[in-house]
Write a structure and sequence with these properties.
Blueprint lengths: L1 H9 L2 E4 L2 E4 H41 L5 H22 L3 H7 L1 H37 L4 H8 L1 H23 L5 H25 L3 H6 L2 H33 L2 H4 L11
Antiparallel strand pairs: 1-2
Keywords: Electron transport, Membrane, Transmembrane, Transmembrane helix, Transport
Pfam families: Cytochrom_B561
InterPro entries: Cyt_b561/ferric_Rdtase_TM (IPR006593)
Length: 265
Amino acid sequence: MTERQEEASLMENTTLGNIILDEFTWDFMAAIFDGELYSIIVEIVAQTLLIAIGVAIATKCLVRGLVRTAEHAFYCVLGLFLAVGEALLFRHSWWLVRMIGMPSLELMHSTLGLLGFWSGCIGVLPKLRQWSELKRRHGHTSCISIKHCLTKHGLCGLMGLLLTLGCLLSGLALLGIRNVSLHWSHRILGLSGFFCSICSQWFAFNSGFARREWRENQIKLFKLGSLATIITVAHFELWSLARDVVYLMPKSTLGPIGVKEEESS
C-alpha cells in the first residue's frame, strides 16, 4: 500500500480503486493525515476574517463617498490591514507554494507589502492635509487635530505605518544582502507593524465615525474579529520564528532542555 501511495504522489493522474487523485489533491490529503489540518483551518479562518472585515469597512466608506474620515479609513484598512495581513499569510501559504512556486510567492509577498505601505500613506495624507490647511488658515492646528494624533488610535496607526516602512526598507535591502539579523529584523518589523495597525483599528471602532455607521453589536463583532485576526494571522509567523530560534540554538543548549535533533535519514 505504501508503494502504491508513493506512485500516486508522483503521477499527475492516478486511479486508486474508484478514486482519481491528482498531484494537488494527494498533497492536500497528505497534509491532513500528517497533522497539518490545524494549520489549514487557521489559514482559512485568517483569510476569511481579513477579507470579511476589510470588505465590510471599505464598502461602508465607498457608500459614504470617500469623504474625510471615510477616505482615511478606506485606504488605511485596505493597506495596513488587508494588504499587510495577506502579505504575512501568503509568505507561509503551503498551497500557494505548490501552485506558483517560491519565487512567484516572494514576488507576491513583496508586491503586497509595497501596496500596503502605499495605501497606508494615502490614508494618512487626508489628516495631514487637514492639519496643514488649519495651519495655513489660522496659523495653528486645532485642538481636535492634536487630540486625534495623540489618541491610542492615532499613535498606534502612526507606529504601524513607521514599522511597515522599516519592514519595507529591510525587505528591499534583503534583495541584495543576505543577512540573518536583517532577515529577522524584517520579519519582526512586519509583524509588529501589523499588530500596531490592528490595535489602531480596534481603537477606531470607539470613534464617532464607527458609532454613526454601525450598531453596537456590529462594533463588538468587528472588535472580536480584529482580535481573532491578530491571533490567526500572526500564528504562522510566530511559529516560524520559534522554529528558527530552536534551529539557531547551539546543540549544547538543546540537550539540557530535552530537545532532540532530528535525525537525517
